[in-house]
Design brief:
single chain; 170 residues; alpha+beta; Nucleoside Triphosphate Pyrophosphohydrolase; 2 domains; 7-stranded mixed beta sheet; 5 helices
Amino acid sequence: MPNRHTVGDEQDKWDWRRLGQSSFFGELRKALQRHKQRMKRIEVVAAVITDGDTYLATQRKGGDWDGYWEFPGGKIEAGETPQEALVREIHEELDVLITVGDKLCTVEYDYPTFHLTMHCYLCTLSEGAPKLSEHKAIRKLKASELSSLTWLPADVEVVAHLQVHEETLQ
């Protein structure tokens, strides 16, 4: 049976027996980096809304992540600061006004079809009571209760930051 490829072609590059384990994983790492560079990149903001010792969580409605919990927020539009985007998004989603405080963290997460950069800010309600329009449910939880919900993958890291943040305040 004739050889289906010649040494040096694309398929041969992935022959770990020829390359050796460390070279194979080096090539794999380079391929993953190239894929990541080609992925769509989305930059968003999230409001970690506090009320005393509780945090506001919203449950997604519809789409691939229906039923998962998240900290509300959205995309930053051209010309907006992250803080301006956050005030706009929270007003659109929950019909409330917020005061944006300190930045809690920035999460970098690779979903299957895009790379997400999420800037998370500690916020407080300044006017109004949250109303459901884009979400299924709203809950207020203590930091110790946050892990009881099924969070979007990127938001899991925010929950971890909050729990560490709570420990440092005590």
